[in-house]
Every structure is written in structure tokens, then in C-alpha cells.
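Suppose a colleague, Dr. K., hands you the sequence of a protein chain of 140 amino acids and asks what its three-dimensional shape might be. Before reaching for any lab equipment, you can write down a predicted structure in C-alpha cell form. Begin with the sequence itself:
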Amino acid sequence: MAKPVHLLKLCVGADSVEDLVEWYRTRPSAGERRHVTRMWPRRAADLMAGGSLYWVIKGVILCRQRILRLDEARGADGILRCGIVMDPEVIRTEAAARRPFQGWRYLEPADAPRDLPAGRVTDSALPQEMALALAEIGLR
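The predicted structure, expressed as C-alpha cells, is then:
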């Protein structure tokens, strides 16, 4: 039986969750959001058992998107890749610092930051910039 697991991925080029949402808004995709990655996850069945893609923005996990399915995607170079199809909804999470890495990493549910209540953009009464700075140095 599949045990749920998540993916952790750097959100390159975005400085904030708003940047990610705006990037999606300016690229119509018939409601689907797809991220293509070079490697196919070995734990695909676990991802499909309720996994999400957690986005690391500027060294901090700030949001996630539920993974709907994994599609084969062949690049212009003919190489087969993995298309991670995600729910269009971007769900904000508690801030959790992460060191830089390449590709993606698995994230166990017990290690995943909690979702923020709907409508909240941060998990702190501190200004967002200060909360992010504290998270980046591991104090939040």
C-alpha cells in the first residue's frame, strides 16, 4: 500500500508566493499547472496517495500545490521527462527554512509545514520580511 509523501522543489525566479501566482496568471494553461522535471520520481505511487509539491522560495518553504498526476513529457531533445500536474490552487504554508539543493527532494508528511488558514499570507504577527529573514536563519 502506498504511503503518502510530498516533493520539495526550489521555485527559481520567484521572490514571493505572489510572484508564483502571477507567473501562473500570465500563462494560461486550461486550469492545469504543470512542472516538468528531468527525473521520474521512484516513489510515484506514494506521491499519488495524497502528495503535494512544496515550493521553496528564497530559501523558505512558503506554499504548496496538490499533485494530481504525473505525465510523460518528451522534450524537444527527445528525452523523456516527468510532467508533475498540480492543482491550480496555491496553498500558503507556515514558513520553514531550507538550504539550497538541486532537483527535488522527498518530504515526509511529518516534516511538512502546516497549511495557513485561508486568507492568511503569513504565520506570524511579524512583518512578512522579518518573518522570512528569521526563517532563513532558522529562528522561525
